[in-house]
Amino acid sequence: MTGSSAGRDGTRPGAGRDDGRDDGRAAPERTSLSVQARDAIRRRIVDRRYPQGVRLVEREVAEELRMSRVPVREALRALVSEGLLELLPHSGVRVRRMARLDVEHLYEVWEPLAVQASRLAARRVERTAPDAPSPLTALRAALDRAEQAASDDEGAREVAAHTAFHEEIVALSGNPMLGRTMEQLNGQLQLLFGMREEPEHMRAQHAVMFRCIAAGDEESAAASTLLHVRDSRAVALRSLFDV
Fold first, then answer.
1. How far is residue 180 CA from its own chain's centroid?
2. Which end of the chain, N or C, is less packed with Cβ atoms under 10 Å?
3. Secondary structure element (H or E) that encloses residue 95, with its range
4. Tens of pLDDT, residues 171-218
């Protein structure tokens, strides 16, 4: 990987030194830069500008993002924790390769969490007072963005919208522990969604999930989500590993 693949993601340029020492900025600002760096690197992994197996050099990534090395170092560590990067035996990191067993393990964990998130989201909708603001606004918007991206044949935007749809279900569930648990999987799910095609029937399943949640029907929401996740698993294994 070289700095020649630089993109412009709206990442804030860093003006600090790149020798790894504290450059005197306040901790909240450095944290913010670290989050920006993490998001920018994650986008490059998901859209495969950083392909699986490629080694990421801290200095080169910092130059590409126009940041100092401190927030980039923190971002790389965070992405190792998310499972998108892995440590090399001696030094540095590389983009993790997802083997078949990795995909199977990911779905084994995601399935029950996704089903429970839909069940809880439907329960929350059912218990919302009629005169209260709709809790479905963000979920409806994510679904609309995904449908528009599919219509425009913009794969990267569609992947982002599909991921946002599932994230909004988790947010709607109102369970912060579930949200924190899902944060550990979201990066790997984005990577996986970006590696395979999204069949039309699976896009239609999102609409069914939305209708069940909007109706406040817990069991139908759970059942439609279970079907969707299992179909997603089958599509992933078939498209990535021909099984």
1. 13
2. C
3. strand 93-95
4. 999 999 999 999 888 888 888 887 766 678 888 999 999 999 999 999
Instruction: Tell me: pLDDT of 106 over 80.
Output: yes
AA letter at 168: E
What are the phi and psi torsion angles at 97 (to 5°)?
Answer: -85, 130
Q: What is the secondary structure of 30-77 as a DSSP string?
A: HHHHHHHHHHHHHHHHHTTSS-TT-EE-HHHHHHHHT--HHHHHHHHH
| Tokens coding 51 | 């392909």
Query: Which of 91, 25, 8 lies closest to 55 in space, CA to CA?
Result: 91
- What rounded mean pLDDT belongs to the chain? 85
Helix (H, G, I), strand (E, B) or coil at 165: helix
Is the pTM here over 0.70, yes or no?
Answer: yes
Could you tell me which of 210, 204, 221, 202 has the C-alpha nearest to residue 142? 210
Note the pLDDT tens digit of each residue in 78-90: 999 888 899 998 8
- What contacts 223, CB < 8 A, 6 or more positions away? 212
Is residue 50 a contact partner of residue 1, using CB atoms and an 8 Å limit? yes
Which run of H or of E encompasses 181? helix 176-195
